[in-house]
Amino acid sequence: MSKVLVVLETAGGKIRSHCLPGITAGKQIADARGAELHLLVLGANAAAEGAEIAAAGYGAAGVHTITDAALEPFTAEAWGDAVVHAVKTLSPAVVGGTASSALRDCLPRAAAVLDAALCAEIVAVKSGDTFTRPISAGRALLDEQLSGDLVFFTARGSEFAPAEAGAATTAAVIDGASVDVRGAQVLGISKTESSRPALTEASVVVSGGRGMREGANFSHLEQLTDLLGGALGASRAATDAGMVPADLQVGQTGKIVAPNLYIAVAISGAIQHLAGMKGSKTIVAINKDEEAPIFQVADYGLVAKWEDAVPALIAALEARKG
Amino acid sequence: MTKILVTVKRIPDPDENLKFANGGLDLSSVKWVPNAFDEYAVETALRLAEDVGSKKTKHAEIIVLSICPAKQRQHMTQFLAMGGDRGVIVDANDADYDTAAIAKMIAKVAQDEGVDMVITGKLSQDNEGNQVGQRVAALLGWPQACFAAEVDWDQGSNSLKVAREVDDGVETKQVPLPALVTVDLRVVLPTSVRNGINPADHKFTDGPRLASLRGITMAKRKKVKTVTPADLGVESAGGEKTTTINKPAARAAGQMVGSVEELVEKLATEAKVL
Ligand SMILES: Cc1cc2nc3c(=O)[nH]c(=O)nc-3n(C[C@H](O)[C@H](O)[C@H](O)COP(=O)(O)OP(=O)(O)OC[C@H]3O[C@@H](n4cnc5c(N)ncnc54)[C@H](O)[C@@H]3O)c2cc1C
Ligand SMILES: Nc1ncnc2c1ncn2[C@@H]1O[C@H](COP(=O)(O)O)[C@@H](O)[C@H]1O
Given the CA of residue A252, which atom of ligand 1 is nearest to it? Predict the structure, then answer.
């Protein structure tokens, strides 16, 4: 039976939760093709991690692992080599995973070596070989048909439900990979430490824009965010101005989010920002300019200065909580 | 001298409304503009090449490459006016080729020109493939530093130290040359690019530079070589084929609320999100 192979990332010995929507996309493609879903685990300790992932199954027919110290920390070079080796060993018809920064970095590399087409950031599976993806900052949806014995995809995490654990499956080791970082060296990663949920996984996101004026003012939004148990986001204007770290940026070039509730404060609503949040279930916009384009996508719009509206909103929510 | 190849694409003006027609986009009357990320790529190359102390000294030759109809090269002229040294055009309607084919053309030009560095945008704003650069690096067998927010050229070890925007934060990756870089938005902030020659704290003007009048005059005299995909050994358009392009469903019309109290009430009872 033909195979759909989904590449996973792990951290602390466990599957990273942002990978789960990619498994769902892979499963949908496998079902549309009458193919089997398989999972690929790469890392310095992949065999052990793979065994644990196989115990949770996630609807896969098998888990495959490549263990090599050079696969950690992640580099596109070594991971690209490992994916190429896995493809040569398992001969899948489709390879993909969630469109994380890591897979967006390494999968096109593997696709190029294998001379395969790649459909990026798919949001829907139309058939076994045709996928839908947004283009031009989400203003159009492209149905792209991929031809070839091998094709690649990356799936937008906000558009597929996280895969759930299911019946256990088996894990198998793939030997003989030779992976090479090509002289690249990861010197470090500076993470934005936060006790809040990940921006892409939170059910509530509160974002601030240029109208917040300075970083210190984001403390009001943080208070609102924490009251709602959400994650903090921002527009490019706010991140470029250094008010908040760059990885909070929502939009075409930032994170794509689709929470239950998105609150945009002092954000004008440029198309590049909308591209990252208009899939949200309920959108609230607070802006002092009634002409701001953000109101065109908002379910609830409030024309007000944030200096008045945000403290009032915090007080009202606190009162409700009692 | 170090040679840097920068890839640039022309795209329909992203600030204009899209026109949908016959299951596709009607591009007959669009205004073509340079892809913003490619402006950032050219600015990055210029900053890497520039000796701000003695304006005349350049530490790299910058070759600008575009796959586009040869007659529609305004964007190429603009990039040469910004400071690119010479151009290469692959005369083709790039929309007829998929990202794999485009990447093969770029990799072949990089090889033929014997460049030390390729800089691409991280994304084309229209197609949003986010993959051409990675593919070029793979085809050349080079290391890559994608989604660059800062680039630091260490002349001693002839390597690049690149701060990359990744999901969790910022990763610093060092790659020996030859290497490929794809640039993100923040690479054009005033201190994002350092070449080891200028003072470390030199501040460039924010954003990609505008072409000067002198630059515009000079651009007309700069060499632009034209080749075809076939010259580069690329015959096939590749396996990514557009079937239809549709307009996304519009969001249902929303409502304006008059007060914070009304907002909270509606969020609780109507939207049921509290
Ligand atoms: C290639 C490219 C990619 C991009 N990618 C992204 C992206 O991923 N994400 C993104 O966000 N942007 C992106 N942008 C930038 C985007 O085009 C806009 O410039 C940006 O989103 C504007 O941010 P803003 O809404 O915060 O600022 P502005 O547009 O300046 O809006 C500020 C708003 O705040 C309001 N305001 C001011 N004071 C107050 C107050 N006291 N109370 C209430 N409201 C107030 C104003 O009325 C105004 O509407 C990109 C641009 C390009 C060219
Ligand atoms: N037709 C083209 N000509 C030159 N460069 C291109 C072309 N298409 C894509 N590129 C380069 O590849 C980058 C990424 O494109 P994409 O993978 O389509 O998002 C762009 O920012 C350009 O630098």
Answer: 8
